[in-house]
Amino acid sequence: MIDISITVEGAEEIIAKLTKLEGSLRDFSGAFNRIGGFMFDTAVEEAPEYTGALIGSHRMKSTNMQATVKAGGAGRRSHGGGIYVAKQHNGGYATGMYGPHKVGPNPWLDRALIKSEPFAIQLIEAEVDTKIKEAGL
């Protein structure tokens, strides 16, 4: 029987650095908080304005690995005539003080997401580079 063994000098050090990197790659909360703030500001700029209620209904939430921007809600009116955000975003019929009428699609949240993508990619790549350097790799 042949017994082959390999010894790598500094293996423990490399394993420790990779373990440190692995732990740090689970938390991008700072980056996603900044990305969410950028998306939020862009969404507010893109939102249609009638009474200001729609703009005021935007909210942002970020976690370790994502950022979300929402507007309106089931109990929130985004327009003086009672047009909800979903109707403004997707298009459809709405009723209000002016009577039933067609609301054209206005996907301002999609536009905000598209405008935020280059910033988000750049920020995440920079954060990964920083985490690699902090781990000593």
- Sheet with most strands: 2 strands, antiparallel
The fraction of residues assigned to DSSP E strands is 5-15%
Q: Which class best fits the helix and strand makeup?
A: mainly alpha
Gyration radius, rounded:
24 Å
- Taken from the alpha-carbon principal axes, the silhouette is rod-shaped
Q: Give, in spatial order, the strands making up the sheet with the most strands.
A: 1-2
Write the element-wise H/E pattern from the N-terminal end onward.
HHHEEHEEH
Name the average pLDDT. Answer: 78
The helix tally amounts to 5
Q: Percentage of helical residues?
A: 40-55%
Distance between the termini: 39 Å
Tally of extended strands?
4
Low-confidence stretches: 76-83
Characteristic key phrases:
137 residues; two-stranded antiparallel sheet; 50% helix; rod-shaped
Explain the overall architecture.
With 137 residues, the protein is mostly helical. It is 50% helix and 10% strand. It is built from five helices and four strands; from the N terminus they run αααββαββα. It has helices at 11-24, 29-46, 53-56, 85-90, 108-134, and strands at 59-62, 67-70, 92-94, 101-103. The strands form two sheets. A two-stranded antiparallel sheet has the order 1-2. A two-stranded antiparallel sheet has the order 3-4. β1 and β2 form a beta hairpin. The protein is rod-shaped and about 80 Å long. The protein starts with 10 loop residues before the first helix and ends with a helix. Mean pLDDT is 78; it is low at 76-83.
